[in-house]
């Protein structure tokens, strides 16, 4: 997808200039301002002094300064002030701020991370003890046992970060496990005003729970026993139990602001983290206007692996976020554990559901009156605040539709109105994907089909003038579920909206019903009136999948200190699997159909294979510049991303098209335009990280209707670190499509020796223009 040019941005500014007076009354916006870092006059003692002087003719002040992953500052400006600032010779560009949202055990065993395995990934890497994972999120609850520092040595010598104390976060909050903690709220406060300390914690302390949960998934210590309200009882542990944690709190009640996120990236890289985990996202925009993409590029260039959540916009297509090729984009899958809570109807039929409700249950063997909240209108069907008539629901189980307010909040509405239970039904978009919640009253969630059956039953009972009744049967924790994994219904899907030549998401990891640490000051339901407390909670989202990959990346970095972020991502991609534990193709949870590469990318991560992938597809900064040039980004916009004055595209298009970035997956997009025969090629380079002397042979599974050839068809390596190239040609014929439609065909290219199997997905998309 072509990117807007620098001149187009100037035009956008100019079009807004109706008059000087009109500028001043318009609402101010926070901008991230990139400057020529090296142009600072010597008269200014620091860059911050220089930046503030640039705002001398405005009422603005500097919010954050950036010096590592980005050069510049952020400030809140009117359109007139932004235009004036943009005209200064040392200002390169202004990026309007976006507000991002959070993408919100048994998973180590499910992933094959066995502590008893003498030769396993955990033992080989000493559980990640010398690696630092930076978690950019809602902060952390340092009191959790998941963050104890028993038997840990001093932090690695490279660590330069610190622990920022506050009234509810004393210096002793940090230890040899939690070695750094900072918070960034200046961008948030620039837009919303000074925060209310009674509602939010102006410190690294987590007052939401999301950051504590994700941090413990990445690097939580072993804690036993662990459970939520008696569910998922067992040992809790993160992916890299001895890895050190550094938390950067950027998310507040009103969201996560770009200026604060970029400041966190800047601090994390300066502090010396090895991995950044970001379970935050938003709308997809061109990379030079995306603060996350810009910050992640600087981090990657510094050798820091960045994993980010794909988003929870599934199961619809084109919903994936955080799609820059230098970011590892993680979707969510299920694991082989669930929490059944079935609905038994008065007619004897049983509808499957899930729940982690842990309070007083319904009376055994009793059937309760059943009522659909939607009979009183739209708001009541969703069980929104004050939408239910107590006379209609008192003493009954209430059926509520999913949407708008949180699932647990619907239960609170039902409880306040006098209902004794709730059945939450998916809509058609949600399909059959079920998320278990810690409800405040006896409640369960059922799929769209189950919801239809419930409503049919109630309608028929009404016609027969007989009471509709039901009860909920809670069955606790069930293990060994088959098939698993499935692609979670909510997990965002491709294709990549910004760069269709780069397959996104990259991989999936466990993200449904994940047990992890929780602040002991917060209710597990997230409902303010809930007085229950738990040290662990069960949450779902690509937010939970992302830190699984962050922790795995730390383990891989510990095993291979010389690997680049791209090499680590390659190892995860080429060793991922696409079959479930029953031996069949991985399914889509939303509809039980076979899932596709746009759902899971290369597949589900497989840690024990990723540690020894045989070959990796490495990528340098210069390769990314070539990719941006071939994606029609201007030299100016590339400079915004790379901070490099020499980002010149005049000689960069050596590889011909953006799909020739040395990515482990291959994606060809053909615009038919009346053509009958179409072809393209990919150039790839693999680096030997397996056996010094090895011979790899080729297996091609061409996408249906295409002809795929690879030259050469064998790769003979004579030493570790040796690089060899190969060329992939893809030819296809036009297919009949209606205007504006497309079809997708998938295959693979597999290199294998006697020990390693290196798999690259191959995707061919045929599009018929309007």
Q: Quickly give the CATH architecture of the largest domain.
A: 3-Layer(aba) Sandwich
Strand elements, count: 37
Radius of gyration: 27 Å
Order of adjacent strands in the largest pleated sheet = 7-10-6-13-15-16-26
Q: Helix/strand/pairing class, anyone?
A: alpha/beta
Largest sheet: 7 strands, parallel
CATH class of the largest domain: Alpha Beta
Overall pLDDT score = 91
Shape: globular
**Total tally of structural domains:** 4
Low-pLDDT sequence parts: 1-25
Q: What gap, in angstroms, lies between the N and C termini?
A: 17 Å
CATH superfamily annotation of the largest domain: Peptidase S8/S53 domain
CATH topology of the largest domain: Rossmann fold
Helix content: 10-25%
Structure explained in plain terms:
This protein is α/β, with parallel strands linked by helices and 770 residues long. It has 4 domains: 6-96, Peptidase S8 propeptide/proteinase inhibitor I9 (Alpha-Beta Plaits, 2-Layer Sandwich), CATH 3.30.70.80; 101-336 and 484-610, Rossmann fold (3-Layer(aba) Sandwich), CATH 3.40.50.200; 340-476, Glucose Oxidase, domain 1 (3-Layer(bba) Sandwich); 615-767, Immunoglobulin-like. Helices cover 22% and strands 26% of the residues. The protein has 20 helices and 37 strands. The strands form 9 sheets. It has a 7-stranded parallel β-sheet with strand order 7-10-6-13-15-16-26, with helices on both faces. A hairpin with a 2-residue loop joins strand 11 (251-252) and strand 12. Helix 8 (210-219) runs parallel beside helix 15. It is globular and about 80 Å long. Residues 1-25 have low confidence and may be disordered.
């Amino acid at each position: 997808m072509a990117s807007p040019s620098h001149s187009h941005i100037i035009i956008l500014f100019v079009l807004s200039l109706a008059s000087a007076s009109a500028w001043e009354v318009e609402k101010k916006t926070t901008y991230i301002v990139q400057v020529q870092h090296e142009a600072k006059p010597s008269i200014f003692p620091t860059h911050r002094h220089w930046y503030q002087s640039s705002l001398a003719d405005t009422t603005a002040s500097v919010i954050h300064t950036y010096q590592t992953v980005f050069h510049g500052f952020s400030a809140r400006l009117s359109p007139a002030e932004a235009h004036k600032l943009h005209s200064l010779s040392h200002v390169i560009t202004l990026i309007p701020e976006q507000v991002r949202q959070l993408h919100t055990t048994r998973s180590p065993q499910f992933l094959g991370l066995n502590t008893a395995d003498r030769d396993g990934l955990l033992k080989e890497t000493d559980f990640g003890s010398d690696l630092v994972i930076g978690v950019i999120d809602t902060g952390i609850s340092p009191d959790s046992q998941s963050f104890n520092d028993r038997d840990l040595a001093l932090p690695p010598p490279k660590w330069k970060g610190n622990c920022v104390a506050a009234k509810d976060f004393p210096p002793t909050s940090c230890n040899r496990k939690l070695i750094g903690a900072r918070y960034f709220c200046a961008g948030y406060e620039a837009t919303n005003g000074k925060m209310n300390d009674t509602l939010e914690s102006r410190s690294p302390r987590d007052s939401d729970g999301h950051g504590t949960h994700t941090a413990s998934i990445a690097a939580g210590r072993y804690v036993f026993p662990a459970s939520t309200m008696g569910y998922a009882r067992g040992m809790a542990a993160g992916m890299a139990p001895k890895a050190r944690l550094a938390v950067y709190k950027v998310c507040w009640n009103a969201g996560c602001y770009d200026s604060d996120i970029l400041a966190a990236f800047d601090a994390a890289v300066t502090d010396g983290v090895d991995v950044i985990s970001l379970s935050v996202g938003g709308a997809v925009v061109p990379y030079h206007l995306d603060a996350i993409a810009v910050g992640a590029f600087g981090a990657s260039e510094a050798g820091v692996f960045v994993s980010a959540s794909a988003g929870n916009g599934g199961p619809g297509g084109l919903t994936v976020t955080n799609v820059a090729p230098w970011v590892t984009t993680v979707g969510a899958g299920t694991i082989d554990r669930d929490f059944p809570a079935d609905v038994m109807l008065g007619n004897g039929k049983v509808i499957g559901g899930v729940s982690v409700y842990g309070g007083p249950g319904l009376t055994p063997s009793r059937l309760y009156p059943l009522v659909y909240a939607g009979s009183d209108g739209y708001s009541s069907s969703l069980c929104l605040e004050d939408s239910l008539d107590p006379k209609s629901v008192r003493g009954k189980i209430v059926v509520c539709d999913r949407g708008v307010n949180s699932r647990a909040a619907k239960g609170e509405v039902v409880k306040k109105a006098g209902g004794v239970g709730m059945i939450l039904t998916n809509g058609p978009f949600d399909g059959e994907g079920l998320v278990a919640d810690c409800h405040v009253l006896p409640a369960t969630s059922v799929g769209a089909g189950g919801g239809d059956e419930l409503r049919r039953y109630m309608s028929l009972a009404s016609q027969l003038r007989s009471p509709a009744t039901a009860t909920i049967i809670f069955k606790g924790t069930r293990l060994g579920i088959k098939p698993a994994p499935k692609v979670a219904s909510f997990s965002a899907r491709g294709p990549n909206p910004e760069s269709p030549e780069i397959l996104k998401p990259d991989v999936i990891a466990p993200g449904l019903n994940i047990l992890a640490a929780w602040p002991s000051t917060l209710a597990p339901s997230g409902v303010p009136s809930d007085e229950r407390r738990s040290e662990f909670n069960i949450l779902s989202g690509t937010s939970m999948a992302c830190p699984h990959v962050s922790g795995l990346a730390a383990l891989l970095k510990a095993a291979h200190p010389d690997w680049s972020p791209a090499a680590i991502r390659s190892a995860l991609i080429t060793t991922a699997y696409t079959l479930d534990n029953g031996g069949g193709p991985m399914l889509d949870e939303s509809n039980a159909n076979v899932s596709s590469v746009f759902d899971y990318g290369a597949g589900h991560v497989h840690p024990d294979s990723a540690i020894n992938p045989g070959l990796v597809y490495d990528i340098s900064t210069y390769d990314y510049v070539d990719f941006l040039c071939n994606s029609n980004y201007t030299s100016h916009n590339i400079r915004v991303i790379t901070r490099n004055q020499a980002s010149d595209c005049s000689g960069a298009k050596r590889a011909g098209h953006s799909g020739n970035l040395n990515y482990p997956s291959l994606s060809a997009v053909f615009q038919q335009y009346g053509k009958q025969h179409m072809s393209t090629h990919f150039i790839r380079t693999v680096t030997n990280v397996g056996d010094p002397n090895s011979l790899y042979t080729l297996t091609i599974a061409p996408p249906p209707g295409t002809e795929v050839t690879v030259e050469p068809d064998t790769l003979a390596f004579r030493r570790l670190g040796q690089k060899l190239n190969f060329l992939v040609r893809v030819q296809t014929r036009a297919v009949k499509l209606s205007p504006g439609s497309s079809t997708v065909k998938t295959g693979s290219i597999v290199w294998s020796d006697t020990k390693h199997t290196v798999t690259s997905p191959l995707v061919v998309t045929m599009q018929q223009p309007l």
